[in-house]
Specification:
It holds the Pfam family Acetyltransf_7. By secondary structure, the chain is an alpha+beta fold. It is built from 4 helices and 8 strands.
Length: 172
């Protein structure tokens, strides 16, 4: 999956309101994150997840940066690329029979156009092909649940702030 290109129908121009229209073919792929991507990854996370954190606890920049530094060191990060443009992040940690998916954030101008769905489709297809389950967690009040449920993820446990989901490989 990593580095494998995915053809997408996108316009190479962004409209006045920052929206993307779909008309020309371009490529989306993952590349391993570099140290120089650290600030970008934090900014994308803050934009995508920040409102869901702020509604419950407020946004503590210093705490969130320390947490981001910890997560950055403990798992492999990838940058979602649209041609030569960074548009998001994703972490895929191979745990043998399971892949842990996390840090899945797409920049606001690129959200709502099916890019996350297409990327998740590729992750699911590749994990099915290698007979690996996928697990993830998300904040209970984050509306991302519908995306994961559409891809066959099921809640297997929860705590007071997270739902933990699992998608069993179709080959199992």
């Amino acid at each position: 999956m990593v580095g494998r290109a995915v053809s997408l129908m996108l316009c190479s121009m962004v409209g006045a309101e920052g929206t993307i229209s779909y008309s020309e073919e371009t490529t989306m792929h993952l590349r391993p994150a570099l140290e120089s991507d650290f600030e970008f990854a934090f900014a994308v996370k803050k934009e995508a997840l920040g409102p869901h954190i702020a509604v419950r606890w407020g946004w503590d920049e210093k705490f969130q940066m320390a947490l981001h530094q910890q997560r950055w060191r403990e798992k492999p990060w990838f940058i979602v690329m649209r041609d030569d443009e960074r548009i998001g992040t994703l972490s895929l940690l191979d745990e043998g029979d399971t892949v842990r998916l996390g840090e899945f954030y797409i920049e606001g101008a690129h959200r709502g156009h099916g890019l996350g769905t297409r990327l998740l489709n590729d992750v699911v297809r590749d994990c099915d092909a290698s007979n690996q389950n996928i697990r993830l967690e998300y904040l209970k009040w984050n509306p991302v649940a519908s995306l994961y449920k559409r891809h066959g993820f099921e809640v297997v446990s929860e705590n007071e702030i997270h739902f933990f989901m699992l998608r069993t490989a179709e080959n199992r």
